[in-house]
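Much of the work behind modern protein science is quiet bookkeeping, done one molecule at a time. Below is the pair of lines this work produces for a single protein:

***
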Amino acid sequence: MKTAELTSNNNYFEDFKVGEVLRHRRGKTIEPTENVVITNMVMNTASGHFDELVMRDTMFKKRLQFGGVTASLIIGMSSQDTSENALAELAMTNIRFKEPVFHGDTLYAYTEVLEKLDSERADAGIVVFHHWGVNQDDKIVFEGDRRVLVKKRSHWRQ
């Protein structure tokens, strides 16, 4: 079996259209365990993620989801549609956390294709994506831009 047979037919460089907006299929409810495990793994010791008692006296009134987890989930939810044929992640810029995310919130991801660029490789091009995530109340909780080196069908799909 060829690798090309394992990936989708509609997410090669040629398939993306500037201005196109994608709504990614799956949502994800944030579980407390996910936040605690990943936050511990990256050694983020901020009490806002771990100490319910301390957080009761803040404007949030409860523990916050670590922004790194939020960003990872939104990018991850978009990956099947945007980077299944990626050769390299080139950059992430303009990262913004717009609203707090809490345990029990459900997130959904969207992507707009901002730009398509030639690369130094004949077999791939660069796609610039704008990703955003919303919570169950349709409030934008995350935004960020991502540059990805994506395979060209003309060279990879046989």
